[in-house]
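Backbone Fold Data
Goal — fold tokens
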Amino acid sequence: MKSNNLESAQQANQSAEDEVTEPELNRFHRNPEHEVSLVSCNNIMFRASRHRLMAVSLFFKGLLEIPPPASNNPESDTEPIHLDFYSSTINNYLDLINVSQPFKPTLSIQSASSLLRLLEFTLTENYIKSVRQWLEKAECKRPLELLIVASERNDVELARLAIGRFTIAHIQAHLKTNNFPEEKEGLDKFKDYLRQLRPSFCLGVLFPMLSATGPWCFQTGIPVIQDWSTIAKNFYPVESGIAAQDARMDR
């Protein structure tokens, strides 16, 4: 009986191994002459130039500077490198580093933020500044969305840029177009927006709002404040007593 149970367990383990899905090869970044395979967290594989990765990234340089064993099959030269980033982000990364002149990507704020995280993770220093600058310019049109990204990154400087651009038109547009329930009143929607921020950032916005000296009020539940630039200057994430809550958001 024990022998049968052991055999059944071994067969189950083998079946589970057989069911592991092979990564799907990206439609564009698939050159078989490229020596490195990158696999995204949603199981998409990219072929990338070992030389190019080492040239732009200290992370990949440290990982790949020891040459792999010689082989007639480039695809077997190295083990795939699994990255905890989605395929869209890795695709944007490879697009960015494989041109002779850096370009400004046309990306959403969230996509640009994910690309910046990958650049920082891989220590791709020469591209971090340009992507961050592009992200900072987004504060002109979508400052509320940019503040959420700043909160995710725990980036105080980026948060101040975003808050300084707040207007009632931006607030109304964001609450109208970002899946806030229609039946909710304006104030409830604004509170829902603030709940998307890490606790220290939420209080960092509220405290200078409540102490603002200029005239302001809630109009249909939306804060009408003339001088958001002063609130931006006075924005300091409130750490006391809520560091543990922030830590949970960083996991």
